[in-house]
Amino acid sequence: MERNFQSAEELAAALHAGEVTSLELTDEAIDRIEREDKALNAICVPDFDRARAAAREADQARVRGEDAPLLGIPVTVKECYNVAGLPTTWGMPEHRGFLPAEDAVQVARLKSAGAVILGKTNVPLGLQGLQSSNPVYGTTNNPWDQDRTPGGSSGGSAAALAAGFGALSIGSDIGGSLRTPAHFCGVYGHKPSLGLVANRGMVPPAVPALPVDLDLAVVGPMARTARDLALLLDIMAGPDPLTYGVAHELTLPPARHERLSDFRVLVLDDHPFIPTGTAVRAGVDRVAEALRDAGAQVDRHSALLPDLAEAATLYTELLFSGSVARFPVEAYEQLQARAAGLSADDQSLDAARLRGMVVTHRDWLAANHRRELHRHGWRQFFAEFDAVVCPVTPTPAFPHDHNPDLLACRIDIDGVEYPFFDQLVWAGLATMPGLPATAMPAGFSPEGLPVGVQVIGPMFEDRTPLRLAELLEQRLGGFQKPN
């Protein structure tokens, strides 16, 4: 495989052996971006001059005998991270001119690890949605089919990885924003346990970059191999030095097992709120068969599994609870009136979204208590199982849909339309309780589109789903270069 598609691990070995320089790798990556990205629009903010300067410095550091985990390796960064001297807009035209003066903590960690930052990758407007399109930078296309989306909100990062634009990227996830693009583009993404990775500086433009504890949202790594995910997570993980880092150091426990035959896995492909499409169901079955063939314990049902319908409703309410915080008073009052008219028997996800938008603090605390009960249920579940394998979304990548009213959008599942946001229930399975989840390739649809699954593990045991993904990669094969 040509060097633009090699893993960070392989590139590091080549750099150590003197087979290539960082400047050569960086020039090759830039050449490929300039040649291929006109059709994809994955790199929305190139930073090639500084990348070449960083590559030269990495080469000089290696001559001096210095080393670092990512020394000289080209990477990209999602647009929503602050990078000093580059615009952070979140795709919002009113913020075109915002230039942060300080790197986000994760950008600083990438640089400390020796990475060469090629530029920033595209996002949806305000990071809202499962597509990557905005008025500032336009639309990003899927490298496998340019008429389809690469997903969102980390769609630019996933498309860049699939197209060979850098070995690694960093993204964020609250509604599958790491996992869905990985699934749509045939790459890997890891949603860390809630609170494991510091997020300071991954903040809307012009908002102070403070070390806040986010509810549901995390930042995390993206790559073309599971081992690279683990490598990048080790660099990203750990408390913010301004807060918990003053008193705490991180020690992640090792993976529960090193062999597939020792894993106990629950495989799911049915959800009470939305069907699973044929192509994704086949991908889940492919992984289940690989697990069984390797001697793993594979179950399809367990009484220990927390209730999926309640989990989806709770996740939806929590997810939408902050979505209208800056709405005008009149618009908010209209939502309150609509929510008051809901029947108590209406337990649809549409109703959960509306209730979440106008939830009171008292009701939010009650929802948070229900979340803690779910977390306790997951602790009991993971006393008997090591992981859950399930879909990321019900379908492979779907065609571009630029309807600005996301609540009016629909998703086609085997010829039947469903509310667009209902597909988030699979992402919410890990997000609501804060569990780690690794998205990994699991084959292709009959149309040749990538199909992925997610591997969910116990909270703060991120190495367990990462190791399981790595072992499955060895049996199933992993990333494949787009045609």
Automatic annotation (TrEMBL):
Coiled-coil ranges per UniProt: none
Domain Amidase: 24-464
InterPro entries: Amidase_CS, Amidase_dom, AS_sf, FAAH2
Transmembrane segments: none
GO cellular component terms attached to this protein's record: endomembrane system
Domain of life, source organism: Bacteria
Signal peptide, first to last residue: none
Pfam family, one: Amidase
Official protein name in the record: Amidase
Originating organism: Amycolatopsis echigonensis
